[in-house]
Amino acid sequence: MLEVTPGWYMTLAAALFVLGLTGVLVRRNALVMFMSVELMLNAVNLTFVAAGRAAGVLDGQVAVFFVLVVAAAEVVVGLAIIVAIFRRRETASVDELAALRG
Amino acid sequence: MLTLLVLTPLLGAVVISLVPARRRELQLPLGIALSAAPLGVAGAVFVSFEKGEGSFQMVEKMVWWEPWGISWHLGVDGISLGLVALTTLLFPLSLAASDAITHRRKAFVMAMLVLETGLIGTFLALDLVLFFVFFEVILVPMYLIIGIWGGERRVYAAVKFFIYTAVGSALLLAAIIALAVMHASQSVEGALSFDYLALLDLEISSTAQMWLFGAFALAFAIKVPLFPFHTWLPDAHVEAPTAGSVLLAGVLLKLGTYGLLRFNLTLFPEATVSLVPVLAVLAVVGIIYGAVVAIVQPDLKKLVAYSSVSHLGFVVLGIFALTSAGLQGAVIQNVNHGLTTGALFLLVGMLYDRRHTKKIADFGGLASRVPMMAGFFLFMAFASIGLPGLNGFVGEFLVLVGSFPSLPAYAVVAAFGVVLAAIYMLWAYQRVFTGPLTGMANRKLVDLSPKETAILSPLAALVLLLGLYPGILLDRTAPSVEAILDRIEQTTDYQVPSPGRLEDVFASGSGDGEG
Amino acid sequence: MSPGAFPDVAWAGLAPELVMVLGAVVLLLLDVQVKPGVKVLWRSASAIMVIALALGIWQWIVTEPGGELAFGGMLILDPAAAFARLVVLVVSILAISAGRSLFVQLGNRAAEGLALVLLASAGFVLMAASQNLVMMFLGLEMGSISLYILAGITGDGVRSDEAALKYLLLGAVASAVFIYGVALVFAGTGSLGLVAIGGFLAQYLVLSPAVLLIGIGLITVGLCFKVAAAPFHVWAPDVYQGAPAGIVGYMAAVAKVGGFAALARVLLSGFGTFRADWALVVAAIAALSMMVGAVMAIISTDIRRLLAYSGVAHAGFILTGLASGAPGSPSVWFYLAVYTVQLVAAFSVISAVGGAASSGSALSDYRGLYRRSPFLAIALSVSLLGMAGLPLTTGFVAKLGVFLQAWQHGLQWLVVVAVLASAMAIYLYLRVIVTMYMHSPTTDDPVGSDRPTFWALGFATAVTVVLGVFPQPLLKLVESAIYL
Amino acid sequence: MIELPTEALWLVIAFPLGGALLLHFAGRWLGEPLAGYLASAASLAALAVAAVAAVPFFTGEGHPSQSLLWEWMPAVGASFEISWDPLSALMTLVVTGVGSLIHIYSVGYMHGDPRFARFFTYLNLFTASMLTLVLAGNYAMLFVGWELVGLCSYLLISFWFTRPSAASAGKKAFVVNRIGDFGFLIALMLIFSTFGTLSYTGVFDRAAQELSGWAPTIIGLMLAAGAVGKSAQIPLYVWLPDAMEGPTPVSALIHAATMVTAGVYVIARSAPIFELAPVASGVVAAVGAITALWAATIAIGQSDIKRVLAYSTISQLGYMFLAVGATAYVAGVFHLMTHAFFKALLFLAAGSVIHAMGGRQDMEEMGGLRKAMPVTFVTMGVGVVAIAGIPPLAGFWSKDEILSVVFNQGGWYTALWLIGLITALLTAFYMFRQFVMVFLGKPRWPEGVTPHESPRSMTVPLVILAILSVAGGLVNTPFRLGLEHFLEPSFEGVRLGHPPEGVGLVLVLAALAVGAGVVGAAMAFFAYHRPPEAWRRFQSGFGKLWGWWENAYGVDDAYGAMLVTPGRRLSEQTAFGVDMKVVDGAVNGVAWLVQATGRLIRPAQSGLVRQYGLWFGLGLVALLIWILVRGVA
Q1: CA distances from residue C345 to B458, C250, C372, C378, C382 in whole angstroms, order as listed
Q2: Is the entire prediction scored with pTM above 0.80?
C-alpha cells in the first residue's frame, strides 16, 4: 500500500498556497481575494501540521492555532474596511480602487 | 591655532544670528568685521609658518571616533597656506561688496561665514572624512547663496551646481572608504583609519590605484572644473550674486586643484604617473576650449567664467607636469587666479549694481565715464592675460616652463592659450570700455566710490606684489612641492626630468612637440 | 518545569510592552466608561509611552550583552531588542506628540487610535525581540493589523479607505508568504526557535536545502514587504499618500524598525551560517531598492510619494548594512534610529502643512513654505538633508557606517551603487528644499504648528544635527546592539 | 670720474618707473605742464645714470657685469638681475636719449589734451619697461620688459580710446604681438629644459656644448618668431600701420625708435644661439629682406603721412633683420641706432606737420609747408636724406654696412643683397615722395587751415635728432669701426659677419647703395614735384600694382577672411553649438535619462492592487528561482 508521507501533505500544501496566491491575483472582488488569502494560510497550517508530525514535535500544531487566530483577526479588519468602502462606492471590486497611483 | 582659524567664521555666524533681525544696518558691517577676524588668524598662521619646512605644520589632532579611525586632524603646509590666506582675504572683501543684497541679509551673512568655515576646513583637513565633510558642507551655503540671492535662473543654476558636485563626490566617498578599509587590512592592529598621514603608508596595487585615482580625480575634475565637466560653472557664475561669483571662482574651484595636488599625487603616485597623459589632455583641451568659448560670450560674467576654465587648465597642467616648477606654478596660479578673477567678478558686480545688466552689448565706451573702474578692470584683465610683472604670469610661466620638460607637446599647445587670453579679454575690454560712450544709461554711470576702491586696492596690490615678488609664497611652497615630488620618485620609477639636450627631452617626453 | 507550573516569565524584561498593552486596554475602557476629553486621552497615552520609555531605558541598562531568553524561549531580551524598543518608543512619542491634532480630529475615535498606536508599537517591539518564528509572526501581525486600521481610521476619505484596503490586502498576502516560509523552515529544521535553527544548521549538513532555502526566501520576501524594499515596495507610495498625514510617519517608521529587526535576527542569528547564500540576494534587493527608490522619487510630484520612494531607497541602504553580516548590525541600528526620527519629523511637517487627517500632499503646496513658516521649513529641510546623507547630519554618519561595513565585507560594488544612488537622491530632496525656499508661495497664509509638534520637530531637528556632528554617544550605544 | 657700480643700475629703471607711479597717483593734481616736465626729468635722470655707467665701455675698461636685484622664480632660474654690457648700454642710451627728447617734444605736442598727465604716465612706464627689456640679465626678465612694452604700446595706441579705430588698433597690436610671443614662450621653454636656467650667462656659456642637432635651430626660430611679432616682420607686421592711431610721439618712440627694435635686440642678444643655427639665421635674414621690400612697396602707395613712415619702419626693421640674420650683429645694432635717430626725427617732424595741419594726416592736403614750418622742413629733410642712405648722413653708414656684409656672405645671401639694394632705391623714392608732397609744391591745404611752426619744446628735439641723424653714423665707419669695437665684449666668441676685405669692392658696393638712393630720390622728385594731376597720371601708370600698394596688398582683408572670421565662427560654433548643445546637453541628457527611466517604470505603479500583487508574486518567483539555482548549483 502506498504510504502517505509528510511530503505528500507538503506538496498538497504548496499547491494550495499557489492556488491561493493565484486567486489573489486573478479575482477582482475584495472578499474573494480575502478568501484566497485564507486558502494560503490554510496551506501554511497544513504544512505546519505535517512538518510537526514528521519532526515529532508539537510546535507545528501549536503554531496552527496562532495562524488561525491571526487569520481571523485579519478577516475582521478586512471585512470592516470592505464594508466601509462598499458603503461609499457600492462596489467591492478592487479594480475600481486606483485613485492612488504613480 | 588652526582649529581657531576654522571655527572663527562659524562663531561669527553664531554672533550674527544673535543680532535682532530689525537691526539690519548692523548685519553687513558686523559680518565684515567678523570675517576680518579669520583674516587676522590666517595672518598669524602665515607669519608663524616655518619657511624651509616641507611637512605639515601647526598640526592638531583630536580623535573623533576611534573605531572608524576618524579624527579632527588639521595641518597646514606650503600648498594649503596660500589658499587659506586667499580665502580669508576674499571673504571680507566680497562681503563688503555685497551692499546690493538687501533681501534676507542676515541669512546671507551667515551663509557666507559658514561657507568660509567650510572652505578653510577643507584646505586644512588632514583626515579624509573631515575633508569630505567640509568638501560637501560647502555646497549648502553656496547653493543658498546662488539659489536665494542669484539672478533670474538662479534655481536652475543652484541645483545644477549642487547636483553636479554632489554626484562627483559620491565616488570620492566610496574611494575614501576603500582606503580606510585597505588600511585596516594592512595595519597590524587591523584598525580603520581615515588619517591622511597614515594612509600615505599604504601599499596600493596598481589596479586599485587606478580606480581610486579615478574616483578622486572625477570629484576634483568637476570642481576644478576640467573639460568636459565644466558646464555647471558658467551657469553658476552668471546667476550667482557678486560675492558668490567671487568666492566660487576665487576659492571653490581651487578645492578641485588642491584635491588633485594633495591627494591624487601623494596617495596614488603610480596611477598619477601613468594617467598623466589623460589629465594633461583634459587640462590642455580646457585651456584652449575655455578660451575659445570665452571669446564670443555675450555676457561679461560668462566670459570671465569661461576664462576660469582656461586658467584652471593651466593649474592642472602644472600639477601633472610633475616637475618642481610646474607644481609651484600650479600652487601659485591657484592663488593668482583667485585674486584676479575675484577682482574681475567684483568689477562686473559693481557694473551690474549700477546698470543691472551684464551683457557686453549694453555697454560701450565706459572708460570715459568711469576711468577708475576701467583702469582696475584693465589691470586685472592684464593680470589674467598673464602680463609679466603681474601675478598671473608667474603662475602661467612656471606651469609652462615647468611642464615643457615632461610634457613638451602639451606645454606648446597650452602656450597658445596665452594668445587666446589676450583676444577674449582685450576684445571684451574694448567693447565695454572703449569707443564712444553709448546709451543714456551708460552716460549716467558713476565711478568707483572710495569704498569700492578700498575693496579693489588690496587685490591690486597683491596682484602686483605676487607678480614681482612671488617669493613671498614660493619660498613657502617649494619645500612642500619637493616633498611631493620626492614621494613620487621614491614610490614609482618616475624621474623628475633634469635639464638636458632637447633630443632627450623629446625622446622621453610623452609627445612630439611642434617642429 | 512541571506541568501546570507557571512558566518562567521575565516580567521585568517585558515591562515596557506590558505597560503599553495594558495601557491600551485601559485607554479603551476609560473611553467607554469615563468618556474623558481627547486631550486627557492623549495625555494618558503620552504618559504611558513615557513610562514605557523609562522602563525601556532601564531595561537597556540591565540587559546583558548575550541577552536572556524569556517566555520559554519565545522572546530574547538582548541589547538589539532593547535598542529596537528604544527606537520604537522614541518614534512613537514623537509621532503622537506631533500627531495630536489628528487625534483631536478623530474625536470619539481618538481612544481607538491611541490604543492602536500603543498596540502597534508593542507588536513591533515584540517582533524585534522574537526568538521564535511564530512569535515573530504574532508580533508582526499585532503591529501590522493595528497599522491597517490606523491607515483608514479617519473613515471619511476615499483615498484613506483605498490606502487601508491596499495595505491590508497586500499585507495579508505578505504575511501569508512569511508564515509559509516559517512553516517550510520548520519543515526543514524541525524547530521554530532561531537559536535552535542556528544550532541545527551549524551541526548538520542539510542534505536537501531546497525546502530550507525556499523558506528563507519566503521569510525574506515577507519582511522585505514590511520594510518596503524593491520590488516588494509598490504598496508604500499609495499607502503613504492615502493614509492620514498625522500617522503616516509613525506607520512607516515602526514598520521599518520591526521589519528590519526581524530580518536582521532571522538572517544573522538564525541563518548566519548561510550568509554566503543570502548576502548576494539581500545585496541585489538593496541595489534594486536604492536605484528604483531614487529614480521614482525624482519624478514624484506628491511629497508623500516622494518620501515613500525615498524610503524604498533607504531600505536599500539599510539592507546594504545587513548584507555585510553580523558586524554590520550596529550600522543598521544606527541608520534605523536616525532615519526613523527624520521620517517622523518630515511627516510631522506634512501633517502641519496639509492637515493631520489629509490624504495626499502635492509638492506645489510647499512653494515658499519658508515664508509661511520658517520653522517648519527648516525642520523639513534638516530632515531631508539628513536623509540625503549630507555631512554634519546623522544621515551622513549612518551612510558612512553602512558603507564602511559593506566595503569591509566584500560588497564593494554595492557601495558604488549606493553612493551613486545617494547622489541621485540628493536631487530629489533638493527639489523639495528648492520649492520651499526659492519659489514664491501661492498663498501668504502663515502655517502654524501646535506646541507638541514644535517640541517634537525641535527634538528631531536637534538630534539630526547634534548627533550628526557628535554621533559618538549613539555610535557607542549601537555598538552592543549586535546579533551573535 | 665717478665709477658707477652695476648694483646701482636699477636706478635707470627706477627713475622712469617712479615717475610713472608718481604721475599715476598725482598726475591730475600736478597737471599740465608740470607732469610733462616731471616725466621728462625722470627720463633724463635715467639717461644721466646710464651715461655715467657706460663710461667704462667707452674708455675700453669696462667688462660685462651682472647684478642680482631679487629672486623671482627660482624654480626656472628667473630673477630680476641687471646685465650691463656694451650692447645693453648702447640700447639704454638710445632708449633714454631718444626717449627723453620725445618726452620733451610731447610736452608741446600733447598740450591741451585732457589726459595730459596720463600720457606721460604711460610714456614713463614705457621707458621703464623698455629699459627692463634691455637691461635684463635673463630671458625671463627680458620677457617682462618685452610684454610690458607691449602693454604700453597697447595703452598708448589706444590712448584716444573713444575712437573705435584706436581702441581696435591697440588690441590688434597686442594680440598680434602675442602670437609672436607664443613662439618666444616656446623658445624659453626649450631653453629652460635644455639648460635648467634662463640667465644669459648660464645659457650662452654652455650653448655650444648643450645644443646640438636641430635644437639650436628650433630655439632660434622660436626666438625669431617672437622677434617677428615685436619687430613687425612678415607675417606679423599688420599691427604696426594700425598702431599709427596713437599720438605721434608714441609712434616715434615706440613704433619707430625703440620697442619695435626689441626683436632685433633679442636676436643680437642671442647671437651665441644663432651662431649654432645657420638655418635660423638664414630664415631671419630672408624674412628681413622680403619684409624690407614688401613694406617699401606698400609705403610707396600710401598717402597718409604716418602710414608711409610706418611701412618705412617695417621696411627698415627688415634691414635690421637682414643684418642680424647675416650675423652682422654690429651692423644690425648700428642700423637700429641710426634708425632710431632718423625715424624718430621723421615721426616727430611728421607730428609737427600734423600738429600744424590741425590733425590732418593726408599728404594730398599738404604741400608747400616749407615756408610755414622752416625748422620742421629742414629737420625732416635731414631725416629723409639720412634714411635714403645718402652719405655722409647716418643712414648711409649703417645701411651700407649691412648691404656689404650681406653681399660678403655670398651664396643665396647675394639674392638678399639684391633685394636690399632695390629696397634702398624704393626707400629713397617713397621718402622723397613724402618730402616733396608735404613741403614742396603749392599748398593744397583745406580751408581754415593755417599751418604754423611748432613750439620750441617740439622743435628743439627735432634739431637735436637732426644733428644725431647727421652725425650718428660716424660712430662706425669703415675707416673707424668705433661701434664694433665698443660692442666687442657683448659678442665675445661670436663670429661676426664682415664687409668684404678689398677696398675696391667696398667702394663699389657703397657706390651702388648710394646710387640706388640717389636714383630713387631723383625719381620721386621728378614724379612728384609737379601738380597733383601729374602724380595721379604717374601713379595710374603702375596700373593695378598701385592699387595693391595703396591697399597694402589687401593683407589685412586676407587675414580677416582667412583667420579672424573663421576663428570667430569657430568660437561661436564651439560656444553655442558644442558647449551648449553637446557638452551641456550630455549633462542634461543624463538627468533626462534618469527621469525617463522613472517615467518608463511609473506605469508599474498603476494603483491596481492586483497588479501590485503581480509584481509581488513575480519578485517572489524570481527570487526563489535565483535562490534555488544558486543553492543547488
Answers
A1: 48, 10, 18, 11, 9
A2: yes
